[in-house]
Structures are given as C-alpha cells and as structure tokens.
UniProtKB/TrEMBL annotation:
Zer-1-like leucine-rich repeats region domain: residues covered: 171-311
UniProt xrefs under Pfam families: LRR_Zer-1 (PF25013), ZER1-like_2nd (PF22964)
Keywords assigned: Leucine-rich repeat, Repeat, Ubl conjugation pathway
Annotated Gene3D superfamilies: Leucine-rich Repeat Variant (1.25.10.10), Ribonuclease Inhibitor (3.80.10.10)
Protein name from the UniProt record: Protein zer-1 homolog
Species this protein is from: Astyanax mexicanus (Blind cave fish)
Amino acid sequence: MAAKAGDNPDSLMSLCTVFCLKNLRRTMCYTGERNKLCLRPDVFLPSEICDKLVNVYMDLVYTDSNFEAQDGFFQLFSDPRSTRLTRLQLRDLVRDKDVEAIKKQVGKLSVTLICICVCNVNESLCIFINNHSQLLLLLNADTDKDSPKNGFNRLRLLNLGGMQAVVDVEALLKPLPALTSLDLSGVYLPRPAFLAQWRDRLASLVLYNVDLSEELISTVVQMSRLRHLDISRENQRNSKFKMTRKILTSIVQSLGNLVSLDISGHIMLDNCTVPQFEDAMGRPSIEPSKSSIYPFQELKRPLQFLGLYNTTLCNVTHIPAYKVTGSKNEEQVLNAIEAYTESRPELAHRAINQLFDIARIQHCSQLLRALQLVIAALKCHKYDKSIQVTGSAALFYLTNTEYRNEQSVRLRRQVIEVVLNGMEQYQEVTVQRNCCLTLCNFSIPEELEFQYHRVNLLLLKILEPARQDESIQRIAVHLCNALVCQVDNDHKEAVGKMGFVKTMLNLIQKKLQDRMCDQVMEFSWSALWNITDETPDNCQMFLNCNGMDLFLDCLQEFPDKQELHRNMLGLLGNVAEVRALRPQLLTSQFITVFSNLLDSKADGIEVSYNACGVLSHIMFDGPDVWSVEDPERDWVMDKMWDAIQSWDVTSRRNINYRSFEPILRLLPQGISPVSQHWATWALFNLVSVYPSKYCPLLVKEGGVALLEKVLELDSSQPETKDMARKVTTSMQTMKND
C-alpha cells in the first residue's frame, strides 16, 4: 500500500526542539531569583541547537495559539560561553530588551566567528530584522576591548526589507564590508551608487518594491558575483521605471553567474518575445537557445529560478528555468506561493486565490504540495486577514471528498490546527464561514477529537447572541451537534460546562422571538438531545435554564414541525431518565402535554414513542410519588397501552442508542407494567429491524437475562411476555447462526 500524502514524520531534532521549548523548566532551564528563567549551569548548546531553538521559538510564538511566550527567553542566549548563535530571524514580536540580550553576545560571538572564518569562509553571523531601531541597537552594541569595532565587520547576511522608518541606509551599511547577501525590499535609495562598495562581494541582492532607476541598474550590473537578483514589484502602480528588452538583456549579459532572477510585476515596454508561431513549435524546453524570451537566449545555462509572476512573459512556451513563478498553470502558481509566502504576503495572497480557482474549477494534481504551502502561509501570516480569507477558502476545496483518500492523518490534523488558528484570530464573517465549512470536510467527532475542547470553545463563541449571520450560525450549530454525538460522557460534561446548553437555548429563544423554525432551531434541539444523553448534569442545566418553558413555547408556536417535535421529545426522554429530575416533570401541564403527544403521528412513531418513553420513566417511580390530580395515573397508563399497541413493530427508526441501560432498568419490576411493556417493545423493535447493531449490544449489557426475568414475573402482562419471548428466541437463533 502506498503512503498517503504527508505521512513523513517530523525529525527527532524538530520534535525535541518543540518539546524543550514547551517544557523549558523541565528540560534545560530552572527558575532563579524573582522567578527568572535561567539556563542550567551544566548545559552547553552549540550553534546548530541554539539557532534552531530561537527560530522555532519565534515560529511558535507567531503561529501557535496555545504557545505562550516566555519572559526572559532571549536572556538564555546572552552568554557565549554556554550558547552560540549564528543565524537569527527576528520579527516584530521581539522586544527591545530581547535585542539587548542578544547584543550582549554579539561582540564575543563575532570574535569567535572571525577565528572560524580563517578555515571556513562560510561560517558567519546572519541577521534578518525589519525593525530599524532594534537593528541600530545591535549595530551600536558595546564590545569588549578584544573585539573589532562593534563586532559586525564579519556580518554577511542582512535583511532590511520592510523597514518602516526613513533611515540613512548608506550610513547604516557602510561599516559592514563583508556583506554577501543584502535585502533592501521597499527601502528608499536616493543615492544607489554606494552599493558599488560590495560589487565584488554581493552574491544576493533583493530590491523588491524598490524604485528602480538607470543609476541603480547601472550599479547592479557591475556586481559580477551576483547569483540571485530580485528587482520585482508588487504591481505597476506609482512606478516611473519601465523595464525594456535592452535593460533585461544588459542584466543577463553582465551577470554571468546568475542562477536566480525575479522580474515579477514589470511590464515590458517593447516586444521581447518570439513570434507566436515560433513559440508554439515543439515541446516546452528550458534550453536558453530555444527561449521564447529573447534576452534569456543569452543565458549560458537555464536559471534555477525565474520570477515572472504578474507578467505576460509567464504565458510563453519555452522558458529557460527549472522553477518559474507565474499564473499560467498549477506549477507556476505553487511556485509563486512557495517563493513569496514568507516575505511577500500580498503576492502569496493572489497566488493562493488562483490555487483556490484551480481546486474549485479544475483539479489540483499536486495535492500534498498545495496543502503544505497553504498551511505554511496560514501559519506564517496568522494576522493577515487577506491570507486567512483566501487560504481558508482554498483549504475547503483541497480537503473535500475528491482529495480525501490522498491525505494522511498528520496532514489533516495540520489543516485543522491552522483553521482553528484562523477562527481564534478573526471574528470576520468570511474567515469564520470558510473555517467552519472546512471543518465540515472532516469526520466528526473522530478527526477533531485531538482539539475537542478548543474547537467547541470557538464554535460556542461564534454562536454568541450578537452574531446574526444565518449561514455561519447554521454551520456552527451543525458542527456543535456533530461534536457531541457519539462521544463519551466525559466529553459531553466538559462541553456542558463551557456553556453549551445555555448557548443552544439562547439560539432557540432568538428563533422563537422571530417566529422562525429553521435548521438552526432544529439543529439546536438536536444538539441538546445529544449532549443530555446519559449526562445528568447537562439535563439539570437544561431545566435550570428554563428549557421546559421553551419546549412548551415551541410546541405551541410550531405545532406541525415534526422534526422539531422529535428532537424535543428525545431530549426530554434523556431528562426523564434521571430519577432526581423527574419530579420537575411531574406537573399537570407537562403530563397533559406528554399524554396528548402519544397520539402524534409525526415522524412515523418517533414523537409518540419518545413521549411514551418519558411517561414510562415517570410511571416507574410508582403511584406514591404521583402528585398530579389531573390527569389521573391510570388514565395516562391506559393511553400509553393504546399507543404502544398502535405502533408497527417493524418500523424503521430515526434514533441511535449507544446503551440500553435506561431501557433495561424498566424490565425487572412490577410497579409499572406499562413501562415494562414499552421497554420490551423497544428492544423487540430494535433487535428485529437492526439485528447486527443491537443484538450484540443487548448481549453485552445483560439484556437477555433481564428479559428472562420478565417471563418469570407474575406481574408481567401476557403481551409483554409474548414479546420478551420473541426477543430471546431471536437472540438464540442469531447465536446458533
């Protein structure tokens, strides 16, 4: 059997890193004075582990709603004698005092790295940061007398992309001669010629959304060592610079070491593609000589990466690159999501929207990759509304029945986690609807059980009375109902304590005020029926929250709604099973209502059957507790007998029993023969119509022995004994078969 998509397990390193970060004081730390987080004195962490800890910590803080940031975490890495840092990616969530802690290590760390660089030129300190004040804090770090000026003369990778404030970039970068990789996305460059300082060193230069000029381009083409150049734009608005065939040709000819080029978002002023008839010739090729784009025919070899997103160039046939971003097909769209998710959410958002159309209208052929990329985007941009809207919509189509068999349990759990993250962060209607619809693609409650408490809390929050969107209400109530169906009583009790019962009753109250019996009303009663099953505490909550008044009001307001009546009576059957609560049902008004419902033909026999079940449990308490003068107990029992005899014992049922215990307790007794008869009829019907499901359950719970006792009791009625005998005979026949 082939492995399903996403079955590869996390590495041991990844698992251990996450465990340690979630259990710092139980693993490598202890609590010092004033509750300070301190590294254990016997712990030394090499750079591979330190880098992993810090960067995974940042990811967890940013993407995991259940992960709490640890005050003093960065102080753990302030001493280079016990920790080593080489590659950091600091986000906006990092505070100045955290940077202060890292600053303490920078000087000594740089000295160490200089020594290492003598024998390994690839070893260096790399910093990705988009908060200019924190960067200045680092660059102006005090150092000890043995350190070179400010400890950063070996800094090789620097990302200033997205810097909000206007700073003198030239002055900022001048003391950093060793730079080989520089990201200046969105940075204002009034005098770009200063970049020539690194023309013999820079291997990577990113100028995304930088206003290009002839001076800047002429400086860039001097950088003969460049392997990666990004001069792309989000769009053409407000751009004075126009890309020409001549400029593109100059870039290709001057930068012979290029392996990666991104010109997304640019419109070519003059035609730089071959004629259409020539483009259509032969199978798609990545050979530069066959390129449909004239300037790229000058390439010595195919590029590893070529960004053509939001350009017309992505539509040609022959593109000399192994990986191309664009919107022509699924491969280009997935490449775009992969390339732009981390630092360009505005482009990732567009690409995910295009993937949504592919999954909705066509067919997604790279399901695993698509899901992983969308999950990564949703995690990375938890606070970006546009990503959350398009990503959650794409997940709905990528997890539907068509693709389900290709997905592993692990992958589907990752989907659930990012969906719940979105529900937590955004109360906006579209995100909530998309997330709820996506959850409907899963087997409930089985696939959601690992997040059971969390998902119920989120759904109940959606169903707060202030929420008026009907479609979300309907989906959320459906999910709530499914979540409390077929789960153990501990789960139901826990959900009840979250306010589940009161929330459902509030919804019912609102629908009553609007005089509307729709799916929300019916699902709410169904959910209450499920959550009160064998859970006395939830039954008590129902009564305490005036549930019986709402029952009567609904019965009066919607006399012809059969599904509604069935759900309400099923719920009251659960309440009646709790002996301590039955006195609250023993009123003239309630007994009269239940007695009248015995004559109901709604939903086959279901309403009449459930009404008789409620009365059977009340009768089981005996005549001594019957405090109602009207109607009389004997009159009600006669009416119950008539109702039971009118039912077809071969009726197919709209009901599901997880246990026969509430029915079985009515068998070995003589205080209420009609209750015994109702219980025996129920068992005979269920084991006759659904033998494979209910015969094993009857045997498991000792029902056969109790039916034999019914046959022995003198108080048992002949009709009851006859039915009990038929059940035991059927069970024996099945056993022999």
